[in-house]
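Please complete every field before forwarding. Incomplete forms are returned to the sender.

SECTION A: IDENTIFIERS
Entry label: holo-485
Bound molecule: 2-acetamido-2-deoxy-beta-D-glucopyranose
Molecule representation: SMILES string

SECTION B: INPUTS
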Amino acid sequence: MEVISFSMLIILLFALFLISLPLLLFLIQNKSHSSKNTTMFPHGNMGWPIIGETLEFLKLGRKGIPEKFINDRMQKFSSKVFKTSLFGETMVVLCGPEGNKFLFSNENTLVKGWVPGSIRKIIPSAGNVSTNEGAIKMRKKLQTSFKLETLQKFIGKMDLAAKEHLTTHWDNKKEVLVFPLAKNYGFSLVCQLFMSLDDHVEAAKFYDHFAVLLAGLISIPIDLPGTSLHKAIGASNILRKYIAEIVRQRKLDIAERVESVPQDILSHMLLTSDENGQFLNDMEIADRIVGLLVAGHDTVSAAITFIVKYLAELPHIYEEVQNEQREILRSKPKGELLNWEDISRMKYSWNVAREAMRLASPAQGFFREAITNFTYAGFSIQKGWKIYWSTYSTHKDPNYFPNPETFDPSRFEGNGPAPYTYIPFGGGPHMCPGNVYARLVILVFMHNVVTRFKWEKIFADERIIIDPLPKPAKGLPIRLQPQCT
Ligand SMILES: *[C@@H]1O[C@H](CO)[C@@H](O)[C@H](O)[C@H]1NC(C)=O
Ligand SMILES: *[C@@H]1O[C@H](CO)[C@@H](O)[C@H](O)[C@H]1NC(C)=O
Ligand SMILES: CC(=O)N[C@H]1CO[C@H](CO)[C@@H](O)[C@@H]1O
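SECTION C: PREDICTED COMPLEX
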């Protein structure tokens, strides 16, 4: 019975094929004929319907080789640009420093910022950065709040937080698991600095919702009960209500008695606002703060984790960082907290941090959307298409970074890497406003950790996973040896 129906199916398919053959031939001919003189679209493979090549993209990331996705296709299709489908969208990938330069230089004329649907559903404001007037004002406000002049006032607070973290979680321990501790540290730091959420019990409750939110951020955008996206949207609603209440209370405090208002980034934003903070309502401000919490904690935690990893693997580099930091410590009155002058002396340490962010870039890449039809490298790109560029494809290109897998902080000496090749924070007008924040937090942590500890890895060959941020597969357990200074 089965055999019969199977052969019948074959015959049926064959007949169908024969009938449609002329039509097919006509279509193919017509296509090649007309494509002779119409614009040429970038070549590429669109993968499966809807999912496209997303699974392959995510799989290579989990294997720790996200650059392979780009490199394979650059070889197959074009070294400059290719087409694919990711996160349910037609996606054009621009490659190499020329691609980066093109995108950064044509911001708001040919392209604008874009984020995948899953992120827009969880953090609505992430979808409309440059549309309405309130959003533009808010963005400007945030950018001033993230300038060095503003943030350097918080260096002492960052130093205290690093000291407290190491005392609580590292002191008197033989072993620690670095990655979860770095996440915990990065998160409690943003809570303290942004909105003076110092209470550990409150912060822990807050963190649970936050973890659910993060898990859904880069997911297939299907919002049904049980999916990680659905849970993340729920968590985001709780967090935004919670933060909106903090914002409401803070506005009241500011209106009533300015002197006793907590000195944090939220107060700074509200106090420097030209229109008494009325440009956005509390919920809209809360929405942006959730976005900042996401951007500000995970990336910094990943960077710290990888710095600890490389310092464990490379004792001569650890020693040089330690010497630089001990020198700074010795030059200060005992007990005085770090300040901007100290940070600006941490030149070697910063090169080490930058090299760690080259090899394990916290951001894999960024998205844009074409706002008009344009031609790039001879290929036509259509209005509405999404564009992706990847940090890893230049960070690991031997043309720009010889022996790309070798950790070498001297790459950042002198003029440093060629333009548009080292881009962990993006570039152009949309450059991540958190780069100054990241620099301060990372250097303050490095100062404290190398002046108090030396360490070695427990698993010499621990794998790296990128999902969506880089992390060591086993969380980077290390063995500690306290240092005296
Ligand atoms: C996003 O934009 C839409 C319309 O442009 C607006 O209705 C909505 O309130 C905006 N969302 C946020 C969170 O700013
Ligand atoms: C873009 O090009 C397509 C054809 O390739 C055309 O249909 C469309 O009208 C163009 N759009 C704009 C905004 O020029
Ligand atoms: C053969 C032919 O028609 N060539 C034309 C193809 O289109 C370009 C502009 O898009 C023309 O310049 C060519 O003359």
